[in-house]
DUF4148 domain-containing protein (Cupriavidus pauculus), 121 residues
Amino acid sequence: MLLRRQVSQLALLAVLFAGLTPLFHGHAQTPQSSPGDAAINDAISDAVRQGSIRFQPTPAHPPTLEEQCDQLALQIGETPRRSYRPSNAPVENSQGNEISTVERDRTRRQLQKVYQEKCMQ
């Protein structure tokens, strides 16, 4: 008797599941996307894979040399004249203790070098 009840419950569940499957199938389908949507999704996926902080769409026209120089000048102006960061290699003092050291951040100097190469020709 118990076995017959379990079999009938299982059959009832199978019928219910078979009847509800088409209802859920319609919700699982995604709408067709346009080629523009695919390009946007690819760009976002690439940005996420590369670890970019924010999505930056490509500009409609490439920036001119003057715009690039202006942007470099702004970056140089925003960069502090002297900044330091911890170095990766600690130094051992005469007592045998390891002391962390700092090194000068060369970002400003690199920006100035690029500015001179591009904009002062």
